[in-house]
Amino acid sequence: MTTFDDRERAFETKFARDEEMAFRVTARRNRLLGQWAAAKMNLTPEETDAYAKAVVQADFEESGDEDVIRKLFGDLTAAGVEIDDAAVRKAVEDMTVEARRQLIEAQ
């Protein structure tokens, strides 16, 4: 039975590691998205840092990416930035790849 127990523990460990990595990628991505949007809105460095944190917090409103996309799109249009929903979604995809790359390189 120990072989099965060892396999079960290994799968549980891998699952936990994968979930942690997914969480870290999402958090990093949201921070990068906040910095991207802040640059488009011409925010100061202090405002950029605060805004990036606000985007990370916005992700906890509901599951999925729609809460972050809504926040980014709403804030960008309110600031007078000409952007459409597709451009925001493309930025989400691009920043996901960049966040994953940064975390892999950091290991």
UniProtKB/TrEMBL annotation:
Top-level taxon: Bacteria
InterPro entries on file: ATPase_inh_sub_z, ATPase_inh_sub_z_sf
A Pfam family it matches: ATPaseInh_sub_z
Identification of the protein by name: DUF1476 domain-containing protein
